[in-house]
Design brief:
By secondary structure, this protein is of the alpha+beta class. Helix content is 32%, strand content 24%.
């Protein structure tokens, strides 16, 4: 019999130092199909982080809250989902 384990409640992360920009971009491409993995790069420091159940729950609640406020104020919004921002000239990237 197979049992399913519960997702981790807390996020997990680890950090690598002295990572080149090219390596950061290549690693990001390798993990592009893993939506629960987030990469943050800051001038040679690369952090890997997984999102936990609590993060996803709060993200959903916050999104619903903002949608409700925008609707009540009759303001248009455009949700973007998960996005990656990269600036090679600043040697920084965040998801």
């Amino acid at each position: 019999m197979t049992t399913l384990s519960q997702p981790p409640e807390a996020e997990q992360h680890f950090v690598l130092h002295d990572v080149s920009w090219a390596s950061y971009v290549a690693i990001g491409q390798l993990f592009a199909d893993r939506p629960a993995l987030r990469l943050t790069y800051d001038r040679g420091t690369l952090e890997f982080m997984t999102t936990g159940f609590r993060h996803e729950r709060y993200k959903h609640w916050l999104g619903r809250f903002l949608e409700t406020i925008a609707e009540e104020l009759e303001k248009p919004i455009m949700p973007g989902g998960s996005m990656t921002f990269q600036r090679e000239d600043l040697e920084r990237g965040v998801e």
